[in-house]
Amino acid sequence: MKYFDFVPEGAKGCQVTAYLQTAVEGQIAARPAVVICPGGGYVMVSEREAEPAAKEYFAAGYHVFVLTYSVEELAKDFIPLMQLAASVAHIRKHSGEWHVDAGKICVCGFSAGGHLAASLGTLYKEEKFLEAYGRQDEIRPDAMLLCYPVITADEYAHVESLENVSGAAAGSEAYAWFGLDKHVDVDTPPAFIWHTAPDTCVPVENSLKFCSALSAAGVPFELHVFPEGGHGMSVCTEEVNTPDAYNRRWVQWSIEWLGKVFS
């Protein structure tokens, strides 16, 4: 493994930790990559959803990148989304050097990090975002893995996350704009999504409404709703203090789904 940190070109206030596959002898073939956005309500970046998740996809043969993005007052004005977009662009620019398949880059997010990942998948061509980004980069992800994601700006919204990322009060037009189910179209990347039905922090309706929008647009998706478990389960192991063998199945399912999408 080759392990290092970098700041994406054209970005600031963030850091990406890279876990690159290496070979014992000679060159390795280009591999797909997973870019992970941990959760934290846009007020912090959860360590429980960073390296523990990275290790799962690295063990499955993926290059993995973990984004530590801006939060709190710096979560508004598209700053985290510009950091994620710059990260994907940076990975594609260095794909030859790092042996990344530039056409097989997945964004993976947990909770508010799921909102960030899904934002890149739905807002990457929105004029409002592109005006702020101010660059001509290939930033559309090729797939999305969304874990108990913040999505809606309606009665099921995680208000704190939406207020932080929008910089606006709940109920305002600026706040509502970040309801991502309203931005899904035929060009949205395919998605793997999981949630728990009893989640009292980010209601399961966030995932259900996003999948309904994906279905209406004809975008392929796979959804798993587990009947038990709370919010923030990460990879469902002792390491992250949420051991749950039943719900942990999402990890292997997501790996198998990615293999199918990227085959």
CATH-scheme architecture: 3-Layer(aba) Sandwich
Pattern of helices and strands: EEEHEHHEHHEHHEHEH
Q: Determine the fraction of residues in helical runs and give it as a percent range.
A: 25-40%
State the CATH class: Alpha Beta
Q: Reading side by side through the largest sheet, how are the strands ordered?
A: 1-2-4-3-5-6-7-8
Mean of residue pLDDT? 97
Output the keywords.
globular; 263 residues; Rossmann fold
Short précis:
By secondary structure, the chain is an alpha/beta fold.
Which helices and strands occur, and which strands form pairs?
Elements (H helix, E strand, L loop, with lengths): L1 E5 L8 E6 L10 E7 L13 H9 L3 E6 L10 H15 L1 H4 L1 E11 L1 H12 L3 H7 L9 E5 L11 H8 L6 H4 L14 E6 L8 H13 L3 E6 L22 H13 L2
Parallel strand pairs: 3-4, 3-5, 5-6, 6-7, 7-8
Antiparallel strand pairs: 1-2, 2-4
Helix pairs in contact: 2-4
Task: Write up this protein.
By secondary structure, the protein is α/β, with parallel strands linked by helices. The protein has a single domain, classed as Rossmann fold (3-Layer(aba) Sandwich). It is 32% helix and 20% strand. The chain is built from nine helices and eight strands. Strands 1-2-4-3-5-6-7-8 form an eight-stranded mixed sheet, sandwiched between helices. Strand 7 (191-196), helix 8 and strand 8 form a beta-alpha-beta unit. Helix 2 crosses helix 4 (112-123). It is globular. The mean pLDDT is 97.
